[in-house]
Amino acid sequence: MVASELPRADAPPRNLPGLTLHVPEPKFRPGDAVDFVGIEVPPAGAARRPDTAAPAKDFPELAYTLVRVLDEEGRAVGAWDPKLSPDTLRRMLRNMALLRAFDERMFRAQRQGKTSFYMKATGEEAVAIAAAQALADDDMCFPSYRQQGLLIARGYPLVEMMNQIYSNRGDKLQGKQLPIMYSARDHGFFSISGNLTTQYPQAVGWAMASAAKGDTRIAAAWCGEGSTAEGDFHSACTFAAVYRAPVIFNVVNNQWAISSFSGFAGAEATTFAARAIGYGIAGLRVDGNDALAVYAATLWAAERARTNQGPTLIEHFTYRAEGHSTSDDPTQYRSAGEPNAWPLGDPIARLKQHLITLGEWDEARHAAQDRELAEYVRAEQKEAEKNGILGHGLHQPLDSLFDGVFEEMPWHLREQQQQMIAEEEASGRPWARK
Amino acid sequence: MTMNEDEPTTRMNMIQAINSALDICMARDPDVLVMGEDVGYFGGVFRATAGLQAKYGKTRVFDTPITETGIIGVAIGMGAYGLRPVPEIQFADYIYPALDQLVSEAARLRYRSAGEFISPMTVRSPFGGGIFGGQTHSQSPEGIFTHVSGIKTVIPATPYDAKGLLIAAIEDNDPVLFFEPKRIYNGPFNGYWDRPSENWSKHPAGEVPTGYYKVPLGKAAVVREGEALTILCYGTMVHVCTAVVAEQGVDAEIIDLRTLVPLDIEAIEESVKKTGRCMIVHEATRTSGFGAELSALVQERCFYHLEAPIERVTGYDTPYPHSLEWAYFPGPVRIGQALKKIMKDA
Ligand SMILES: Cc1ncc(C[n+]2csc(CCOP(=O)(O)OP(=O)(O)O)c2C)c(N)n1
Ligand SMILES: [Mg+2]
C-alpha cells in the first residue's frame, strides 16, 4: 500500500458540530500564583466510621470525602480518632522527623556525588510511618520507591539503608539494585521494583496465600496516583475482590507523577478511592497529611482484612513537596508556590501541634529532637561510608555479578564469569584492584 | 553521509536531532502526533519533545496516563483512524507492559486484516546502559522485538542518523521501534567511563541539516572501511568499537547496522566476503540476542569465506547491575580481547 491509499485523518463531510479532544491541564504552571480553593477540605471529625464488618456498598461516600482527625487547632476529633497514647504519638512524630532528616542527608549525599540517585518522601511522611505503626510488624508490605518510612518505622538500621544507597561493601543487595530499591524480608518489606505497580498483584498473591494457609498475616501495597493507570493496578483490584484477599491497597495521591498532574490518572473526573467502588472493594479517602487519620484508616482496613471482610483501597490525599527524584527539577512544570499553599499543611508540623495541644510536647523539645536526629543520621552516614561510596573502588567481588541469576549457575554463566575475570585482569583498571 | 552542499546545517546533539525530526514531521503532516509520559508541557524526561506542545498544541502533543499498554493500544487505534502517532516509552525497560499490544496487535494488524488496517506508528524509547541507571534504566531489549514478525527495529548512532532515520520511520507505514542509545544522547561514548566525556560538537555526524531529509530504513552505514575484519554493531557500540580499532591499529571495516529489521544483508555479506572475518558487538545480553541472528546469517551466507570463527561480544546474561556497571558493560577491554582473538592467525 502506498501512502496515498491510506485512510486520511480528515473530518467526514457531515453536518454536525465537530468533536473536541479534552487534554487535562493543571491549574498552575511555573510563575502562577497558587490558590487551592478548588480543593474541598471537609472539617475534621465529619466522616462516619462504619463497622469494620459492614459491606463495602454501605459507605460509598467515604470514597469521596476526606477522613480527617486532626483539626485546625491540633485536636483529635471524631469517630476516627485512634486515641493513641502520648508515647505512641511521640514515637510517630520521631519516626516522621527521622525520615525527613534521613531524606535530607541522602539527597545531599547524591548531590555530593556519593551515589547515583535518590528519592525523598518530603511532605508524605505520615503515609508510610503511620501505616507501619498501625500494621502488625509481620504484616507484609509491598511498597513503591517512596515508602522508605516503612523501614524506618519498623526499626530497620539506617546504616543498612545507606549501604544500599551507596552500593557499597555493606550493601545486602550486593550493589545489584538502583539506590533506594531496598529489600528487607525480615522486616516484612518486599523487594522494590523500578517498574511501576507490579507490586500490586503480587501483594494480592501474598495475601491469597496467607488466607489459603489459614495464616493471620495480611498484606499491604502502595503505589502513587499516577501508577493507578497501569494495568497491574486493575488486575490486582479484580483478584482482590474476587478472592476477598486480606490486602490493603494504598494509593498515595501526592498530586504529581514526575511532571504530570493527577488529572492524567483520572483525578479530574473522580477520586482514586472511588476506583474501589466499581470493583466492590471498600474505599476510603484520607487526609494523608494527618498521621492520625492514616493510622486510623489503616487499622480499620487491617481489621477488615483480618476478619475476612476482604480488601480496602485507601487514597492518601497528600502533596509531593519536592522533586520527583534527584533527576527532576519541578520548577520546570509546576508553580513554586504550590508546596507552601497546600491546604492540608505539613504532616510533621500537624502532629507536633497535636502533641503540644495535648501538653505532651513543646517547641524546645522538638528543636532538640531535630538536632539529635540530624546528629544521629550523620553518625550513621559516617558508619556507612566506612563501607565505601558508589564508584570509589570495587565494593563487591567482581564475580558476584553472576550470583543470583539462578539458584545454581549454568555453564554459560560460569563461562562468562571466567571471561569477565580474565578481562579484568587484562584491564589494569582500578576495578581490578581489590 | 549524503549531504547536499547547499542545505543549511547546524550542530546538534542527538536529543536536538530527534526533536528536530519530530518538529519537521509535525509541520509537514498534520496527522503526526506525539504522546507519552511527561512528553507534553515538560518536554520529556530527556527533553526530546521540548517545545513541541507549545508549537503544535495539546491535541497533537500530550502527556498520557502511566500505562504503556494503554499508550501503545491507543496509538494503534489512532493509526486505524488514519493518524501517524509517535508514542514515547519513557525507558525501554518500561516497554514490557505494552508487549501484548506490540506483539499481538501492532505487529500483526496489517497481516490479519489483509491490509485493511495498518499501524503506522513509531515508538521512540531510550535504551541501553552506561548511566548508572540500574536494572530498570539500562536494558537493551531489541532482541525481543526483532524476534517478532511485523515490527521494524531502528537504532541510530549519531545525531545525523537519528534525525534522518526518525523521519523515515515516522513516514513508514509499518510499526517501527526506534531505540535511542541514551548514553550517546550528548556525545559519542568511547567506552572509557573514567575519561572526560565528549560531546557531539567535534564529531562530523553532529553537523545536521536543519531541514527535511531521510536516512533510509534497512540500510547500514560503513563507518570505517577496512580489509582485516568486519565488525557489525549499532548504537553506542559503534563508538566503542571505533575507539578500540583505532587503539589497536587494526584495519577493521566497521558497519553500523542502523536498522536491525529489515537488515541490510547485502552490506554485511559484501563486507564479510571481503574481509573473511566477522565480529559482532552489542550491549544486550548474549543468549538469543540479535548477535545470534547475525552470526547465523553470516555463517549461512559467508561460510566459505570465513578464515576464523565468528566472534560475539555482548553484555553478560545477567540483569543489568548497578555498582558493577563497568564490569558488565562491553567496553574496550572485552572488545579489544575479542579483536586480538579473531585476528590471532591473520
Ligand atoms: C512501568 C513504568 N513506567 C514508567 C516508569 C517511569 N516512572 C517512574 S516514577 C513515574 C511517576 C510515578 O508517579 P506516581 O505513581 O504518582 O508516584 P510518585 O512518584 O508520585 O510517588 C514514572 C512515569 C516506571 N518506573 N515504570
Ligand atoms: Mg504521585
Automatic annotation (TrEMBL), chain A:
Domain Dehydrogenase E1 component: 95-389
Cofactor: thiamine diphosphate
Record's protein name: 2-oxoisovalerate dehydrogenase subunit alpha
Catalyses which reaction(s): N(6)-[(R)-lipoyl]-L-lysyl-[protein] + 3-methyl-2-oxobutanoate + H(+) = N(6)-[(R)-S(8)-2-methylpropanoyldihydrolipoyl]-L-lysyl-[protein] + CO2
Gene3D superfamilies named among the record's database cross-references: 3.40.50.970
Role of this protein: The branched-chain alpha-keto dehydrogenase complex catalyzes the overall conversion of alpha-keto acids to acyl-CoA and CO(2). It contains multiple copies of three enzymatic components: branched-chain alpha-keto acid decarboxylase (E1), lipoamide acyltransferase (E2) and lipoamide dehydrogenase (E3).
Organism: Sphingomonas kyungheensis
Region annotated Disordered, chain positions: 1-20
This enzyme's EC code(s): 1.2.4.4
Protein family per UniProt: Belongs to the BCKDHA family.
UniProt keyword annotations, A-Z: Oxidoreductase, Thiamine pyrophosphate
Annotated PANTHER family: 2-OXOISOVALERATE DEHYDROGENASE SUBUNIT ALPHA, MITOCHONDRIAL
Domain 2-oxoisovalerate dehydrogenase E1 alpha subunit N-terminal: 18-56
